[in-house]
Design brief:
Layout (H helix, E strand, L loop, with lengths): L8 E7 L32 E5 L7 H4 L3 E3 L19 E5 L3 E5 L5 E5 L5 E5 L30 E8 L5 E5 L5 H8 L17 E7 L3 E7 L26 E7 L5 H15 L8 E6 L6 H8 L7 E4 L8 H12 L22 H4 L51 E2 L6 E2 L1
Parallel strand pairs: 1-3, 2-4, 4-16, 9-11, 9-12, 12-13, 13-14
Antiparallel strand pairs: 1-8, 2-7, 5-6, 5-8, 7-15, 10-11
């Protein structure tokens, strides 16, 4: 079977650019035998940005572009010429993408809005030229500041679909059929388990110009937290939904038991899902009469609003939309603007991506000849020649923004 184009978990390697070294040049000109230091500053290394794009729905473009490398800043020159800044790199991702450190699983940042720009890795600051180090007692400094090193990081990007309602149920519970009837989505529908192999989104129209988004994920079974069936991999797509719609067929042996099993699997995946508002839909009710429905109400689970529906017979769908709309717009069920993100759980990792090995690349090493005359040659000091503390960096070079803060769109960028 051909591999699906829907990729919601990918591991990539990112590196910001190194800052360029400052120049240790001493000015030499006719009739100016001792012109003094005039070495310029090095350029800043390129940043690595993330940018939200609502026109993307998968991370497949990153699966085949696993190395995102910003360029290094150029070294400073004589006559106080500042080196060119390194080129930034911008990674476009679908809205709802969370980023984690691949080595530790620590949550780094997320992108939830269109055109939202987040700086993932900061480029190294350029080194200061020797003109910054001249004093009354040290008029010809023959050294300059090396550029700051860039940042290298293996990151995991995890896509979590943004929707108002998430469908939860066993295979063949009627989730895809419901989505195809009340929205324009065309999910695969067949009479066998695990027909749905990837999440589907649909926009549900409600009483005129209003609408809400519904997400259908592959069915889960008892023991999915232990890897049975398709496991719990796709449950990440309902973590950000406002309402969970549980769907249980009317011909089930024990509706309350199946509902409890689904709740236990969700709690095993993420305990925070227990706090989300729920609605229970009893599907395939076209085979029931009013008397049998009343008898079944006594056996339904307590504490959850229940609706009897039939997608094929268009039964109870208007009532279901009313219940979902009311639940979505309840102030107590609103998704907070700032969502508290958890670190990546070991159980939620995709082993095939974690085992992906990146080829090592050799970096160019600058060799310094200690015997070379630095008075007029403009020699650059290597990055390992001296350790510089933050007090040597000028205030203009310091970035006040903390890591992973939303920033303005960079002027020049290369999009992947």
């Amino acid at each position: 079977m051909a591999e699906s184009n829907f990729i919601d978990y990918v591991k990539i390697f990112c590196r910001s650019g190194h800052g360029g070294a400052g120049s240790a040049h001493l000015h030499r000109a006719k009739y100016v035998p001792k012109g003094g230091p005039d070495g310029g500053d090095g350029g800043r290394g390129g940043h690595v940005y993330l940018k939200g794009n609502r026109n993307l729905w998968t991370l497949i473009h990153l699966k085949y572009t696993r190395h995102i490398l910003a360029t290094d800043g150029q070294a400073g020159g004589d006559s106080q010429l500042t080196g060119k800044n390194g080129e930034d790199r911008t990674i476009e991702v679908p809205c709802g993408t969370a980023v984690y450190d691949a080595d530790t699983g620590k949550f780094l940042c997320d992108v939830t809005e269109h055109d939202q720009v987040v700086r993932l890795l900061k480029g190294g600051r350029g080194g200061l030229g020797n003109t910054h180090f001249k004093t009354a007692t040290r008029q010809t400094p023959r050294f300059a500041q090396p550029g700051e090193r860039g940042v290298e990081k293996h990151v995991i990007m995890e896509l979590k679909l943004l929707a108002d309602v998430g469908l939860v149920g066993f295979p063949n519970a009627g989730k895809s059929t419901l989505l195809s009837v009340i929205s324009a989505a065309k999910p695969k529908i067949a009479n066998y388990p695990f027909t749905t192999l990837e999440p589907n989104l649909g926009i549900v129209s409600y009483r005129g110009q209003q609408s809400f988004v519904m997400a259908d994920i592959p069915g889960i079974i008892e023991g999915a937290s232990e890897g049975r069936g398709l496991g719990l991999r796709f449950l990440r797509h309902i973590e950000r939904n406002a309402v969970l719609l549980f769907m249980v067929p009317a011909d089930s042996d024990d509706i309350a038991k199946e509902y409890k099993v689904l709740c236990n699997e969700l709690e095993t995946f993420n305990p925070d899902l227990v706090e989300k508002p729920r609605v229970l839909a009893i599907t395939k009710c076209d085979m029931l009469d009013d008397e049998l429905i009343e008898e079944m109400r006594a056996e339904l689970p307590e504490g959850v609003e229940t609706v009897f529906i039939s997608s094929v017979a268009q039964m109870g769908l208007t009532q279901l939309k009313d219940v979902l709309w009311r639940t979505i717009n309840d102030e107590r069920n609103r998704i907070p603007e700032s969502i508290v993100q958890r670190d990546l759980d070991e159980r939620h990792r995709v082993q095939a991506e974690d085992d992906f090995i990146f080829s090592a690349e050799k970096e160019e090493v600058i060799e310094i000849d200690d015997d070379e005359d630095t008075n007029a040659g403009g020699k650059m000091i290597g990055p390992d020649s001296k350790e510089w503390s933050d007090e040597y960096w000028e205030t203009d070079y310091q970035d006040e923004n903390d890591d992973f803060q939303v920033v303005s769109d960079p002027d020049e960028e290369q999009v992947f």
